[in-house]
Amino acid sequence: VSHRGEAFRAMAAAAEADLRQLLGVPPDYRVLFLPGGATLQFAGVPMNLAAPGQAVDYVDTGLWSAKAIDAARPYADVKVVASTAAGGYRDVPEKGAIRARAEAVYLHYTANETIGGVEFPYVPEASVPLVVDASSTILSRPFDVAAHGLIYAGAQKNIGPSGLTLVIVREDLLGRASPLTPAVLDYARQAADGSMLNTPPTFAWYLAGLVFRWLIDQGGVAAMATRNERKARLLYEAIDGSDFYRCPVAPRARSWMNVPFLLRRPELDATFLKDAAEAGLVNLAGHRLAGGGMRASLYNAMPEEGVRALVAFLHAFAQRHA
Ligand code: PMP
Questions:
Q1: Burial class (CB in 10 A: 0-12, 13-18, 19+), 135
Q2: pLDDT for the residue 291
Q3: Best of 33, 136, 139 to mutate for ligand 1, by most ligand atoms within 8 A of CB?
Q4: Model's pTM, two decimal places?
Q5: How far, in Å, are 34, 53, 166, 177 from residue 75 at the CA level?
């Protein structure tokens, strides 16, 4: 099947229409299905929106923010206008404490820090276009697209297979890319070509379309939000209600998607992971860059029974080692 053929184009049009319906994307926004992962957009964003040396502002709430900040430095005058690094990335900045420079061409933040489990409970206010890395929260709950100039998200959490990245960009921000921007990274050129400037990641795109259909059938992002909040609450209550485990993240900033937790006796970490795997509960090791511990990811695809199984295991393990 050629990506330029009728069948693929029809699939692509349906996928975009479904996504627009799910997120309530306003008509003056373009939706791009790009190759390369969210990491490529760490550079793509400043290349498209800022001329060399122009001011771009960033909020630093964790390891993914930090990567976005480092990647932008070669292309623009980067300033970190708010950071929670000093506190070990366990909270979001106070609402109202984020102030972009008047001359900044955008303000960037990471809606959900996948490694740290820190999620913004609010949309930062900005007098400049707001850019968000929504990789690990997109489609998990309603999202105010119109409050943002640009939204990008890698596919592999709530969208589909890795390698595909969604970019949703307000039309007035197109056409500012620096001349050295490679064509596949140039949002205006990709928008003009239906994201088919070269061979796109066709299979990932097709599966993303199926996931959007599935989400609509589930009742859309509002229904997912109800489920995801309940899933997360079950797990945080189990952690907070036990003196065997603890969650390091400030309650207001706790992610619905990634729940980091620590054993109060870290010498049991390896046993915990081994016993959990034997119980069919895998991928619970925390990220090495976050200093280990545990992390449970509760993306849309995780059913509530998976969370209940983990909660039952947490109780049983704590009892065995009391
Ligand atoms: N941003 C966030 C918030 C992420 O969680 C990830 C990947 N886990 C990335 C960016 C990078 O995505 P990719 O590996 O697709 O480039």
A1: buried
A2: 75
A3: 136
A4: 0.98
A5: 20, 7, 22, 11
